[in-house]
Amino acid sequence: MTAGVAEVRFGRHTIGPAHPPFVIAEMSGNHNGDLDRAFAIVDAVADSGAHALKLQTYRADTITIDVDTPAFRIANKDSLWDGENLYALYDRAHTPWEWHEPIFARAREHGLEVFSSPFDPTAVDLLESLDAPAYKIASSEIVDLPLIERCARTGKPLVLSTGKASIAEIDAAVRTARDAGNDQLVVLGCTASYPAPARDSNLRALPVLAQAFGAVVGLSDHTMGIGVPLAAVAFGACAIEKHVTLSRADGGVDSAFSLEPHELAALVTETKRAWQALGRPVLGPKPSEREGLRLRRSLYVVEDVRAGEEVTERNVRSIRPAGGLPPAEIRTVLGRTFRVDAAKGTPLTWDLL
Q1: Which of 164, 212, 251, 287 has the highest CB neighbour count under 10 A?
Q2: What pLDDT, on a 0 to 100 scale, did the predictor assign at position 183?
Q3: Rounded to an integer, what distance in angstroms lies between the CA atom of residue 26 and that of residue 136?
Q4: How far is CA 200 from CA 19, 203, 208, 245, in A?
């Protein structure tokens, strides 16, 4: 096991097992090229109770080049973007750099943490100028060790998405960050397909990530709905990232697998509830069961009896509440005699016999 940290400070929040899950809402390209729609998404994220808004910071020509050969086209029949040219897709989906400052300001007005995934050093420079509190390394960029080092040297937390990555590639990314003096890492399990089938989520790998890298872990989820991230909390996910849109019916590059605002609100509520339900690995009565313990069954006198009468199944029974002898003692007491008078409703104790 690699030594690491038990929690990560992210702006005003702390991410770790002792804290409710940190919910990150990814806007991506769901603004559909409309700044007012981007603002509306920010407002909806704030209303949902999510903790952070995330952007993606690139231009088409900082993430790829304008070439239309087969290598530059997506060839995946299960992808939303099957057959699309990379440059055209990224040109349509990117968030203009001049939008970043007003979006950051809008999010901060709501008290949201706001950060982004930079895709090259110039994006890091822009985000540094906006005092971004953290950096996200996207799944495809986990192999870009110079980019990881550049982000790590800011001293700000790094959120590393591990979709498509081998354990060696994850190890190289984590080591690069730590060698740059940054141990504020949140490592996200991720299935980098869009949308992702739930069967590929492999949530049992989350404790492996935590143990192998000594890092706080979470989930970057592209499945439909909120079932997978709720299950992830049970496997130790301390941060949950989901794409969000105003309405899937409006369309957009990521809308098909994005949450609508009411679903994001449910995610915030239910991940916290799932975290609260984890408890401790012990067996026994819970504090909330104290009154229930008092109402468990025991042996009671169920009709008035006089001294000298025999204990029978008619005058002594196992009923609720507690207070009398355990129900298992019925075989021992039947046939004995009462030593004193006892009224109906008296708990049966040894001193009555």
Answers
A1: 212
A2: 95
A3: 11
A4: 27, 9, 16, 23
Q: 79-93, 167-181, 196-210, 212-226: lowest mean pLDDT where?
A: 79-93
Number of other residues whose CB lies within 10 A of the CB of residue 286: 9
Q: Which domain holds residue 43?
A: 8-58+94-278
Residue 39 phi, psi (nearest 5):
-60, -40
- What's the whole-number mean pLDDT along residues 317-336? 96
Distances (CA, A) of 334 to 309, 314, 343, 352: 11, 10, 18, 13
The structural domain count of the chain equals 2
CATH number of the domain enclosing 304: 3.90.1210.10
Q: What is the CA radius of gyration of the chain?
A: 29
- The residues with which 57 forms a beta bridge, in sequence order, are 118
Contacts of 129 (CB under 8 A, 6+ apart): none
CATH code: domain of residue 142? 3.20.20.70
**Residues 40 and 181 occupy one common structural domain:** yes
Same domain, residue pair 209 and 291: no
**Which amino acid does the sequence have at 95?**
T
pLDDT digits (tens, 9 = 90+) for 122-155: 999 999 999 999 999 999 999 999 999 999 999 9
Task: Kindly report, residue by residue over 3-29, the tens digit of the pLDDT.
Answer: 556 899 999 999 999 999 999 999 999
CA–CA separation, 199 and 196 (whole Å): 8
pLDDT, one tens digit per residue, over 216-275 is: 999 999 999 999 999 999 999 999 999 999 999 998 888 889 999 999 999 999 999 999
Please tell me the distance from the alpha carbon of residue 90 to that of residue 72, in angstroms, as a whole number.
12
Strands 13-15 and 8-10: antiparallel
State the chain's maximal CA–CA distance in angstroms.
103
